[in-house]
Amino acid sequence: MDDFVAGLPKAELHLHIEGTLEPEMVFALAERNRVTLPYASVEALRRAYEFRDLQDFLDLYYQSTQALVAERDFYDLARAYLARARDENIRHAEIFFDPQAHMRRGVPFGVVVEGLSAALTDAARDGGPTSRLIMCFLRDLSAENAMSVLDASMPWLNRLTGVGLDSAEAGNPPGKFTEVFKRARSLGLRAMAHAGEEGPASYVAEALDRLRIERVDHGVHAVDDPALVARLAKERIALTVCPISNIRLRVYPDLRAHPLKRLMEAGVAVTVNSDDPAYFGGYLNANYRAVEEAFALAAEELAQLARNSFAASFLSEEEKRDRIAEIDSYVKTQTRAT
Ligand code: ADE
Ligand code: ZN
Questions:
Q1: Percent of the chain with pLDDT over 70
Q2: What is the mean pLDDT of residues 95-111?
Q3: Over residues 102-108, mean pLDDT
């Protein structure tokens, strides 16, 4: 089944580019930029990758972003992820970035987005995957700050596909960003938000109703509200679930307790994603393999997760059809072979 996952064409819809910063790259960039790190070695930094919860992880994640300073750093970071994505047969990636994590350290918006978008363009030219950029607002900062970032992004609007909402969820309900999302949507940006990761099911409903999001990032706690699960299924609102992340951040004690299978069985359009793979020790194929093993998923169920990933993407309807047809023919060749 490992080979089946490896060859399966997939889209990744929940990936923080800063979460692909491997410890080796943190050290290489810190040296290049003469940034001092509070860790003696790559091994010492990697040993710190044991997290009590989301906030504990975010503290380290933001600390390591300090190594990212110049346009070339953002370029190199994104090229490294996209090369890896190509090796994993990821045909399309919708990539989050956190401009405020950089702007508050004095790195201008343009430096971040020029570096990232050049990498996306070059990777697509050099054999893929195709990709899109999604700007996330940090929900533990103010709505005014988010609005000022949206202002700052204006000259680069054509590089952005959408907006998201991430960082510390507890105590930062989506409704705080109603006006920001309204304005972003009026500018033609697609909307999504992290909701129901550590926060309750009511945050998922609030993000749908007040932010008018098109898909939910994580959303696993929706499972606690059967009416909400029925709504997600009926309205075909996809969840970008990140199984290994949820275990590493102790949202669930282990995958057997994880609601992924229950949500699939309730008809929700579940997708599988890696979130911050450098920190959680598993890129996309490792996430597919983990759920395959935990829930004894058949090839057809894995293929359905991959179909969902294209269907829930911001590709054109024609591109979605083409990618899903590729999955169908892949499944045919594989089932013939076994
Ligand atoms: N930023 C990076 N990864 C995140 C996650 N899993 N939840 C919230 N914010 C994040
Ligand atoms: Zn995330």
A1: 99
A2: 98
A3: 98
Nearest CA-CA partner of 15 in 98, 100, 138 = 98
Catalytic residue list contains 94: no
Tell me how many domains the chain contains.
Answer: 1
Domain that holds residue 152: 2-337
We report the CATH number of the domain holding residue 27 as 3.20.20.140
Residue of 12, 197, 198, 292 with catalytic role: 197
- Identify the residues whose C-beta falls under 6 Å from ligand 1: 16, 19, 54, 61, 166-167, 194, 197, 245, 275-276
pLDDT in tens, 277-334: 999 999 999 999 999 999 999 999 999 999 999 999 999 999 999 999 999 999 999 9
Q: For a pocket test of ligand 1, which of 197, 221, 241, 242 has the largest count of ligand atoms closer than 8 A to its C-beta?
A: 197
- The pLDDT value recorded for residue 1 is 63
For ligand 1, mutation pick of 16, 52, 59, 246 (most atoms within 8 Å of CB): 16
